Amino acid sequence: MRKDTMATEPQRQIKRYDLVTPMLPCKDVILAEFERLLLSGKYINGEYVSALERELAEACGVAEAVGVASGSEALFLALAMAGVRPGDEVITTPYTFAATVEAIVLLDAVPVFVDIQPTDLNIDPGLIADAITDRTRAICPVHIFGAPCDMIPIAEIGEQYGVEVIADMAQAFGTLYNGKPCGSFARMSSLSFYPTKNLPGIGDGGMIFCRKKEDADRIRRLRGHEAIRLNGHLYAGWNSRLDEVQALAIIARHACFKDEQIDRDQVAAIYDRHIPATNRLRTPNGGRGIRVTYHQYWVRASRRDELRQRLSAAGVDTGVYYDPPLHKHELAEYCRVQGDLRESERAGAEVLTLPIHAALPFADAEIIGSIVKEFLQAES
After folding, report:
1. What is the dihedral of CA 72, 74, 77, 80, to 10 degrees?
2. Which residues contact 2 (CB under 8 A, 6 or more apart)?
3. Which fold has domain 256-379?
4. Separation of alpha carbons 127 and 264, rounded Å
5. Which 8-state DSSP code applies to residue 115?
6. Can you give the pTM of this predicted structure?
């Protein structure tokens, strides 16, 4: 005999990313421009790449911007043009994506890790000077999750010791530090257009922001297979071009960027109301002159995995990053560790990222914030 059962609705999932909904206001523009591009026959190094370079150079307050094939390529090329050679050392953070270290290692240079600040998860400027040796060629701060590194003291250290500052801002387009775009403080800064970024493409792509026009000129030559000689070293060119399809899509998304950031800011403000300041981002200088783009919104909990399970049970997708940090990664055999990295290890074990994107309903953010607040209150 058939038993009657009541159908139950599947639990609604709250995803960390929605890559489609924010694209919808741009869809018609992208499709129209793509048809124009398709019929033009100019698919490489054309008007869209040039227009995007000019647009983003102005937005970041630098002399030039150069589109390249990916964020990883951007960092590799910037470090190379800063003179990083085999055997040189580059000071950076272990609390970052592997691409930061891969770029250094592929230049046959040595990543040197110093610890991070617990308040913003960025490299601690107070630890950099002790890591400098006569082999140090560059400092590579990484603006983690869209929060700016404390760039003024980092720049001062670079100037004092004659060391270049090359920043990884893959997650931080739109971030301000001291009232200025964070991409304007280093000699060169690298950006990623990976689809999950705040300013995304529809595939891989990257850009290098250059304060010096001569750096941009050299990178444009290299990305198109032209060899160049710099500081007595011959650099072989290779293919690292940003294609026109990506450029036209990014231009369309950039037109919507400010509106999307307003939505992200409102989600972050909801989380801030629920989550104690000691368990979330605290910016340098009390936040004066700082604007965070919130590529990710993170919360710290000593019982992080339990919090993640609690949120998952409520249908909330969360993320864990850089656990373990890169000094525990297999690439660590190419690296040197300076001092105690306990804050990086603690962040790897405690930090959880919450959903934040331009299409996240504010009601969902309230639900998530309430769950986190309740858990942290019980934890404390």
Report:
1. -80
2. none
3. Aspartate Aminotransferase, domain 1 (3.90.1150)
4. 32
5. -
6. 0.95
